[in-house]
Amino acid sequence: MKNLYLVVIIFFGGMISAQAQDYDSAIGLRLGFPTSITYKKFITETNAFEVYGGIRGEGTGTSIRANAAYLIHTELGDTEGLKWYYGGGAGVAFYSFDAGFVGDSGSSITASGYIGLEYTLDDIPLTFSIDWTPTIFIGGFGRGFGTDNGALAVRYILAGDD
Q1: Stretch 23-34: mean pLDDT, rounded?
Q2: What is the pTM of this model?
Q3: Architecture of the domain made up of 2-160
Q4: Exposure string for 124-145, b = 16+ CB within 10 A, e = fewer
């Protein structure tokens, strides 16, 4: 938990000393469950699609998740480059585990809500975001409603806004 506090302090501390730029598309890492590769593409000035997927090995088990989300971004206060966003998305999740004496596997379809903050640096082509994604799992993986999903993402800007 102390590591999470440190990441949040660094994230918000960096926002105070930097300015932001708009961007068109970016690729990077989404540090959540599981750690994933993420790609975000703006289709208008405020609306974006994000896709991400990852694999997580957990001792005797493995999970694979892939998601797509539609996100709406809005300026937040007077801090240039700081935006908050919200939206929804869907995905798939697969899991399997084998503990020797017992094993299982399954899959789920997911529906997620998104709410988060994003900050884009001015002098370096990086953008950072942190979000919360409450998710409904339909099927065998995650069974039911989960409120413990979310991530910190770091993306490299591929194309700026023209």
Answers
A1: 92
A2: 0.79
A3: Beta Barrel (2.40)
A4: ebbbbbbbebebebeeebbeee
